[in-house]
């Protein structure tokens, strides 16, 4: 055996040791929890044979509490590069089999190194979180590690897409890296996220709550809005990520890759979806499916604040972001959560050169003390801010109701929409006819012998005069009143026309959105 | 073709108009607002009462120390938000109380 062969042999042996992570027993335990190992996850997510691992031989920094005698292969995290559908990505996966995936300084430095690489190479970064938290034995060094990760998440924000997977526990300070990233993926029975766990809550507050009830995948997908995609298995989660990566660009200087155009499926008939009675519900996602290529719509945050729908589709093969009121849930009102949801998505699209199509059908803001006290004013303002700030092509189609503040907020001409279309069923008015008639004709109604009959009459009068798109069209606030069937072709036309759109904002360090 | 729809829509009022729609669990579980009186002293944090300074019947001025609540590793001084007479005290030293617990009434 030559020297080189011996060296190669040694390298292979060393690699094999690191690749075993925490060893057979720990891997079995991981499998018993229904979880894949860090390396299995990376290999399942990336294109076959595309993964190359870095920093396999990094050693941890712990010196106290006998840590200097312990060896943690890879220091509990696997980092590297690879591709997804040919798109280059940087990736890291915390390895729960090694010291519970706990984060010490070198573990964090491996992560920050691959993050720096992603930022320099202008490619997406994907982080797989599965960690017991800070490595307590390393003390403040572990905190330093978290801080260095958060800083990079922030610096990379809006430059490269950042994707987080929660495939195990992610608690305490660790939650803030995912929270700073663009898309968070969670998996049923596997993801657990919280700042303070059930034990602390029990001790301090006396509130008895299980880990599932406190911070399960479902909780974050449906109640908190921390998660963007909810899957029933890790494999489903990886499929969702691949689908998402196909829709977004590699960085903020690029556009998402386009694919050949494809007509929507004929099973969706746009004219039969929206009931003419503005009080009747329907699923606005069916309207989107009538419009987008192949009727393929990737919904983001499907379960949280379902009164607004956001997600990606393609028009003429190019990625478009959709924001649509959902009359089927809470009548499609704007509230704190739906405003947050829409505003952040609009800002993502604007950062990454994705045109935004807004489908509007909403009765106004959600009334209630809880909403007012939860700050619906500042939350609602985020939508105004995000639309006004965005310089990507912005197109609005008013399907039915566009009342009051909601009309302004949902990408109106007044906030800088490039194209505004309205269906003939659109009602653009300062408020719903009942509310308006009660105010405008208060005197007539009060003085009438039969108040209800008078109210009905005045409501009818108001509907005839104002519940239509033509008053707004007469002022030029609407570019065209269109037939529903023309929607896709006009949107394609508008997108084609705005492909080279340029719009500038005054130079500033950054704006101050009302977060 | 209109799709068959078997969802349980309810009436939902926004500015005087009723819409048929679905409600979310989060909406159903939203907190309800209760009017509180200025003299009702509630705990803002869960913790342990380590000292009750005021006694029933005592005249207190705005800013007087009423009790000390140890919570979040701090000894929090609970002071009178209004002047008045201490009508009722609902806690004693050593009590572990939750958040939003009525501790004292000043009238």
Instruction: Determine the CATH superfamily of the domain at 40-106 in chain B.
Output: RNA polymerase II/Efflux pump adaptor protein, barrel-sandwich hybrid domain
Question: Greatest chain-chain interface?
Answer: A-B, 38 and 30 residues
- Give the SSE order of chain B as H and E letters: EEHEEEEEEEE
The total strand number of chain A stands at 17
By CATH, the topology of the domain at 40-106 in chain B is OB fold (Dihydrolipoamide Acetyltransferase, E2P)
Q: How would you characterize this protein structure?
A:
The complex is a heterodimer of chains A (515) and B (107). Chain A is of the alpha/beta class. Chain A has helices at 3-19, 24-32, 38-45, 105-121, 140-156, 176-180, 198-205, 211-215, 217-224, 234-247, 270-273, 284-291, 336-351, 369-373, 376-389, 404-409, 433-440, 442-447, 451-466, 470-474, 487-497; strands at 52-54, 77-84, 87-94, 125-129, 162-166, 169-171, 183-187, 192-194, 229-231, 298-300, 308-315, 318-325, 356-362, 394-403, 419-422, 427-429, 480-481. In chain A, the strands form three sheets. In chain A, strands 10, 11, 12, 13, 14, 15, 16 and 17 form an eight-stranded mixed β-sheet that branches. Chain A is elongated, with a radius of gyration of 26 Å. Chain B has one helix spanning 25-28, and strands spanning 10-14, 17-21, 40-42, 47-52, 59-60, 65-71, 74-79, 84-89, 96-97, 102-106. Chain B is built from one helix and ten strands. Chain B has a domain at 40-106: OB fold (Dihydrolipoamide Acetyltransferase, E2P). The termini of chain B are far apart. In chain B, strand 6 and strand 7 form a beta hairpin. Chain B is mainly β and 107 residues long. In chain B, 4% of the residues lie in helices and 44% in strands. In chain B, the strands form three sheets. A four-stranded antiparallel β-sheet of chain B has the order 3-10-8-5, with no helix packed on it. In chain B, strands 7-6-4-9 form a four-stranded antiparallel β-sheet, with no helix packed on it.
